[in-house]
Amino acid sequence: MNENEAKCFIESLIFSAQDPLTKDSMKKMLKEYGEFNLDKILNELKSDYENRGIELVELEKRFFFRTSKTLHNYLFVETKKARNLSNAAMETLAIISYHQPVTRAEIEKIRGKPVFRGTLDTLLELKWIKPSGRRETPGRPVTWITDFEFLKHFGLKSIKDLPKVDELESVIL
Amino acid sequence: MNENEAKCFIESLIFSAQDPLTKDSMKKMLKEYGEFNLDKILNELKSDYENRGIELVELEKRFFFRTSKTLHNYLFVETKKARNLSNAAMETLAIISYHQPVTRAEIEKIRGKPVFRGTLDTLLELKWIKPSGRRETPGRPVTWITDFEFLKHFGLKSIKDLPKVDELESVIL
Amino acid sequence: MTHLNLNISGYEGPLDVLLDLSKKQKVDIKKISILELADQYLEFVEGNLENLKLSADYLVMASLLAFLKSKLLLPEEKEEVEEIQEDLTQRIIHYNAIKKLSKKIFELYQEGKDFHHCNVKNEFVISNAIVPKITLQDLILKYSEIFKKKNSIKLLADDDNLYKLEDGLKWLNQILKLEDKNWLSLFNFLPDGIINLKMRKSAIISLLLASLDSVNQGKILINQKDHFKNIMVRVK
Q1: Model's pTM, two decimal places?
Q2: Of chain B's two ends, which shows fewer C-beta atoms within 10 Å, N or C?
Q3: Which of C94, C104, C144 is closest, CB to CB, to B163?
Q4: Which residue in B71, B113, B172 is closest to C94 by CB distance?
Q5: Which CATH architecture fits A3-71?
Q6: Which architecture, in CATH terms, is B87-172?
Q7: Which of C75, C96, C76, C78 is nearest to C86 (CA)?
Q8: Which residues of chain A does CATH 1.10.10.10 include?
Q9: Tens-digit pLDDT profile for residues C68-122
Q10: Interface size, chain B vs chain C, as Cβ–Cβ contacts under 8 Å
Q11: Looking at this predicted complex, what is its ipTM?
């Protein structure tokens, strides 16, 4: 390992570590490949990343990269988090996509659990589902189907392109 | 925002995004701050990271950083994560990667054995495969293709970069 | 595990080696006596009937070869036989190529092992996505989860007084106490006096499951001449 390789090695170590790395642990790993000046390497890296989108930070003797503070103004704008869909919403969506048109009562029957209005609202808001007429049974309940954005999000040409469950089931159970 | 700031902005965006970013989404965010040449920025970033510990990778029009492959000797980790996939799953994956799009029945024919639901589930869960429409034959069976994560996991640029053997070429390719 | 060693004109050795050689075209599988091969194959399969873990590869090959043999025995057009041989050869080559490739794929550099995703601490939450992170794979898996749950709920009958596999085993174990090696009807071991239809059904199912389990453990043999005929069992 030459000096440049050692620097690359340390750089990639810090980048790929799950948690900030201490100098000691880096020293130990580097030693396996020869005698190098870790402080010099770290200083070089620090200046390499000056005025860039990310910076090398030393905090309580641990090293890590983080997005550059100078970008604060730009990065602060986007604060909406990619939310995770609740389990209830995922189940409801799965049932609607495979059983559409389907009423809320029917979804509840399949899930064996109540479906709250909020769950349907979430999916409605995403335009992944929409109401589609009513079932001609007592109470005339609304039926639900998937909407255009659903196909778009999942890259499906049509709802018929979803794999059927029996296609997924094994031959021998 | 000046040009250098735009570059830093894009750099930090790619670094901190949860999933590889598409050009479209970067373009959208960049547009908020002025007119910039995104392609030029991305090319500059690519060459900035040449011969370093990490590299900027473009895969199916999505961008992300990963540790440089040339360092694999030093960064090799014997993880439990390097999953022990069953033979059945490995073979199924190989058949899907070389014959995609391919139906389950076709996979079974090549293997001469049934493909169990669990096998497809494992590969689905890893996001290494996904359904891709249907074959227009009787029964309209679902066809399977490899997904983005498959290429990403094995560091492949495209499905064409898969390893080759002479035997297969003479038979099917 | 037992291996199949072939000893036929044109080839002597294990089957997998033959496949390997024919793949490398060091042995022409077309010149190997398929008849002899099939005979030894069938013999092997017959001799290992109790071994349920018999290599599936062998079984697949055995059926293909048996099919080929039957074709050879019939006064078929010579061309058709050659075609089948050709097809078989190609399929072996193909499958072997796939097996090799599946290993090769996993010899590639892998994320998390040979290279790694870059983790950068993020002061700010950056995302332009307000769309939930759910993929088609998630959706399909979720549905099959519901489907599986639904099925298992259906199977768990509302009545928990039903007979279980353990009951079936208890009834069937009477056969082990009998010092009799004759074939007996399986359903002789059903207890008398079950009038309730649901209970009777569950008794039959648990006895049948018990018999299959006992066969698997090598305790008994099971036999049924034809569809809907009596199922016969005997101590092994």
Answers
A1: 0.57
A2: C
A3: C104
A4: B172
A5: Orthogonal Bundle (1.10)
A6: Orthogonal Bundle (1.10)
A7: C78
A8: 3-71, 87-172
A9: 545 555 655 666 677 777 777 888 888 888 888 888 888 888 877 777 777 776 5
A10: 146
A11: 0.64
